[in-house]
UniProtKB/TrEMBL annotation:
It comes from Kribbella flavida (strain DSM 17836 / JCM 10339 / NBRC 14399). Belongs to the short-chain dehydrogenases/reductases (SDR) family. This is Short-chain dehydrogenase/reductase SDR. InterPro entries: NAD(P)-bd_dom_sf (IPR036291), SDR_fam (IPR002347). GO terms for molecular function: oxidoreductase activity. The lineage of its organism: Bacteria, Bacillati, Actinomycetota, Actinomycetes, Propionibacteriales. It comes from the Bacteria. SUPFAM superfamilies: NAD(P)-binding Rossmann-fold domains. It holds the Pfam family adh_short_C2. PANTHER family: 5-KETO-D-GLUCONATE 5-REDUCTASE, ALCOHOL DEHYDROGENASE, PUTATIVE (AFU_ORTHOLOGUE AFUA_3G03445)-RELATED. Keywords: Oxidoreductase. CDD domains: SDR_c.
Length: 269
């Protein structure tokens, strides 16, 4: 089988200027998709769009607050009207949250921050795009979670519950949207090896744990976290993006309601 994976597909990426969102956007565009980047910071979106355009890809940007349901729906409708529909959507929005604080010291606000933040934006963006997908044109909704959805360790209550919620959301949504010819697949990467260098919030997220062990964030990722996987390494942004492109393509047309485990074997399903 030859040809571009996503030729003539229209893809909306929320959080398109972030580490994962931008990596996926570049691969989607390389594989022939017309990419619509949405996010909070216009200059960061423009930088990603500039890279895509320079490589010959087709891209548009929009400054959108993904917590503003009306704004997200207006943007999705505009994309669908101009492009003729939405084929692929990815929510790569990150919400800063606590990791490392146990129940006795955790406030209800910190516990709820990732649960409300991640799931609220996931609901808003998914509802906006779903109405413009499917029927005679197969649709794909990609979501992101983390190994915390399955791990049994202390100090990640809010993070773990939010991750499990995102996976449940994808599984249940797949059942709802299957009759409309829309697939839903969740990607579950571990902490990403090269995310700190790419400007991800990973550096801030793991800084307390790294400092407690007398390491830099990169040392913490390459050491303890990577060594806890079967492969003894963490996934890279390129690996996540390439997997996302395959899952969004017609070559994965029978996959829905499932999790793509990109944890390097930190979890074995």
């Amino acid at each position: 089988m030859t040809g571009l994976l996503l030729e003539n597909k229209n893809a909306v990426i929320y959080g398109g200027a972030g580490a994962i969102g931008s990596a996926v956007a570049r691969v989607f565009a390389r594989e022939g998709a017309k990419v619509f980047l949405a996010g909070r910071t216009q200059d960061k979106l423009d930088a990603v769009a500039g890279d895509i355009a320079a490589a010959g890809g087709t891209v548009e940007t929009a400054q959108v607050d993904v917590f503003d349901q009306e704004a997200v729906e207006k943007h999705a409708s505009a994309v669908a009207a101009s492009a003729g529909g939405i084929d692929i959507a990815l929510n790569a929005v990150s919400v800063m949250h606590d990791q490392g604080t146990v129940l006795a010291d955790l406030s209800v606000e910190e516990f709820m921050r990732p649960i409300d933040g991640f799931l609220r934006t996931l609901f808003i963006t998914t509802k906006a795009v779903a109405q413009h997908m499917g029927s005679d044109r197969p649709g794909v909704i990609l979501t992101l979670s983390e190994p915390g959805a399955k791990l049994a360790i202390g100090g990640i209550l809010g993070h773990g519950v939010s991750a499990a919620g995102k996976e449940a959301f994808a599984r249940l949504l797949a059942a709802e949207l299957a009759p409309a010819n829309v697939r839903v697949v969740n990607l579950r990467p571990h902490a990403i090896a090269d995310a700190p260098a790419a400007g991800s919030y990973t550096k801030d997220l793991f800084q307390p744990s790294a400092a407690a062990s007398g390491q830099s964030v990169q040392e913490f990722l390459d050491g303890g976290l990577a060594q806890g996987t079967l492969l003894k390494r963490l996934p890279t942004l390129a690996e996540i993006a390439e997997t996302a492109a395959f899952l969004a393509s017609d070559r994965a047309g029978v996959m829905t309601g499932t999790v793509a485990n990109l944890s390097g074997g930190a979890l074995v399903d």
